[in-house]
Amino acid sequence: MASLVEMIARQAQQTFSRNFNEDVFVDCLAKLRIMLGHIKSSDVNLSRDIFKLTKDNSVEKSAPVTYVDLFENQIFSMGIFIVRNGARIPLHDHPGMYGLLKVLHGKVKIINYNRTNLNEKIGRIPREIIHKIPTWQRHLLLPSKRNEDIEVSTDTEPCVLTPTEGNLHEIHSVGGIAAFLDILAPPYMNETDCHYYQHVGDQDVNDKTKISWLAEISSPTDFWCDSIPYTGPNINLDQG
Fold first, then answer.
1. What's the whole-number mean pLDDT along residues 214-231?
2. Which of 108, 109, 79, 107 is nearest to 225 (CA)?
3. Are 234 and 1 in contact (CB under 8 A)?
């Protein structure tokens, strides 16, 4: 009998292979989210010993984030991020991707934005925003809309991002080490790169619209990942 994590992987494969119409895709995505909502740290052999090994922030060279690679093919990737106490995955995007996030341990806060196409309605960008970034970087300014911040824990349903909703986001651990299982489709490939951003200011366009300006930046120097091997149930999509 297949393990829960393998069944989730099979459902992700079916959902994102895109061999059917949009209505069927929505149904498959909903089923995947429900299945993912049942997974726990024990289902992927994520033991408390792992959290003990990654909790010491006093070690200067310790990576703020540890990654566990569960599975990847051309359709999707599945992995676990372990975020140290007080650390974060900085503001970044997933170009053209869908993503699902399920917390396995602790709690995370997600600050997220949607890209906006309000360029023709925005008018002149305020000087106080323009002057915050170098001249060479100003063409990389991205208008966006900030969504409500989300706090999610092991008791929370999986979060879903789409190519247009919540695709720009940063993830902070809250009150201690946090770990979450992450599914991305399609996975990162050579032609699909992650971009990092910083929030440089907000602009009130009218009484109902506020634009958050983001500037594309290089990968932050205080963020990097190390990795540990996956020791949970085998994931084999060639069977059953």
1. 92
2. 79
3. no
Q: What pLDDT, in 10s, does the model give residues 4-13?
A: 999 999 999 9
Strands 168-173 and 178-185: unpaired
For residues 46 and 167, give the distance between their C-alpha atoms in angstroms, rounded to a whole number. 27
Q: Which residue has the tokens 């951003």?
A: 197
Q: What residues does 109 pair with on adjacent strands?
A: 151, 172
Average pLDDT, the chain: 88
Q: Are 216 and 139 in contact (CB under 8 A)?
A: no
Burial class (CB in 10 A: 0-12, 13-18, 19+), 77: buried
User: What average pLDDT does this structure show over 45-52?
Assistant: 78
Q: Which residue blocks in the chain are alpha helix, DSSP H?
A: 4-16, 22-36, 48-53, 119-122, 127-130
In DSSP terms, which residues pair with 178 in a beta bridge? Answer: 83
| Confidence (pTM) | 0.89
Give the pLDDT band of residue 21 (cuts 50, 70, 90): confident
The burial of 220, by beta-carbon neighbours within 10 Å (0-12 exposed, 13-18 middle, 19 or more buried), is given as middle
